[in-house]
Amino acid sequence: MAFLHEAYDEILQRLAGSGATLVAVSKTKPEADIMEAYGAGQRDFGENYVQELVGKQASLPEDIRWHFIGHLQKNKVKYIAPFVHLVHGVDSISLLQEIQKQAVKHNRIIDCLLQVHIAGEETKFGFDDAELDTCIKTIQASPASFDHIRIKGLMGMASFSDDRLLLSKEFNHLHTLFQKYANLLVWNGQFTVLSMGMSSDYALAISCGSNMVRIGSLIFGEREKRTA
Ligand SMILES: *Cc1c(COP(=O)(O)O)cnc(C)c1O
User: Fold this and answer.
1) 112, 90 in Cβ contact below 8 A?
2) Burial status of residue 203 (CB atoms within 10 A of its CB: 0-12, 13-18, 19 or more)
């Protein structure tokens, strides 16, 4: 187990000029590591399994802002609805409807990012450009149906690749979409978050307009592969 203090400080320094938010991705990592990062002042943490997130949230400090960064199944929304700070991976209208339903039940507004499929690979989740447009038009047409959801912006994952040109192309594409939709009246000026960039590509993502990065292995060390 590990919290890599020097690497953490270096990331904060590199982000300082940009004003970007750091989400420390703690998936698979023990609570002790999270508490070390917490002791260093970190408050935003990202998890991608509902069960793991719920367990950690119950035993860790209440002022942690928990980001759900994985693929969220509709039948699991209810477990995180009471406390989740930001859902990064919304990739269907029906998921949005379920989040709305659970948010009403818990008398909360739940902040969400729409996930866009920007990588070349088939395996990554998210809307393609046309689906994103349809989703946004659906919300615009019926804002009352989504009145317990705040769409805060967009999220995306670039290709798993070392090709900087390809990565910057994908990041720039997401940034262009972000700008295209940012000023719609329906958002009330709250569409301000562009979540892109991970350990291997966060500096590039920032240079392409990201203002929220999700970094795991640089801060906590490499992860074991999940057995489940
Ligand atoms: C695991 C994960 C990250 C962090 O990955 P690292 O390469 O460890 O920084 C970021 N975003 C998502 C969606 C993830 O699942």
Assistant:
1) yes
2) middle
CA of 197 to the centre of ligand 1 (A): 8
Tokens representing residue 218 in the block: 């640089």
Q: In the predicted model, is pLDDT for residue 226 greater than 90?
A: no
69 CB within 6 A, ligand 1: yes
198 CB near ligand 1 (under 6 Å): yes
Q: Is 217 exposed, middle or buried (0-12, 13-18, 19+ CB in 10 A)?
A: middle
Residue 44 confidence (pLDDT): 98
Least confident of 4-13, 26-35, 142-151, 218-227: 218-227
